[in-house]
Amino acid sequence: MDIIVFGEYTLQDVLIAVGIVVGLLILWSIVKKLFKKDEADEHMQKVTCKGCGWQGQVSRYAGRCPKCNEPLGDLKAR
Q: 1, 4, 20, 63: most buried by Cβ count inside 10 Å?
């Protein structure tokens, strides 16, 4: 580990620096995921099926209940 890689920096110094940078990148991605807000998808809508009681998200354009195949949401209004 005493191999000089660049100037006065040894292989050990470079490996420590790379490890710190990778650790900071991982920490940054975790923090971003924790504080990320859910964006509303304009093509999806939350619905409750009146036929079977299923709740979830379906497409605005072809929304059907996955349990009983009833039309839901905007599809039902057409």
A: 63
Is this structure's pTM higher than 0.70? no
Buried b (16+ CB within 10 A) or exposed e, 20-47: eeeeeeeeeeeeeeeeeeeeeeeeebeb
Residue 78 has pLDDT above 70, yes or no: no
Q: Which residue has the tokens 């036929």?
A: 51
Domain boundaries, the chain: 4-34, 44-77
**Taking a C-beta distance cutoff of 8 angstroms, is the pair 58, 35 a contact?**
no
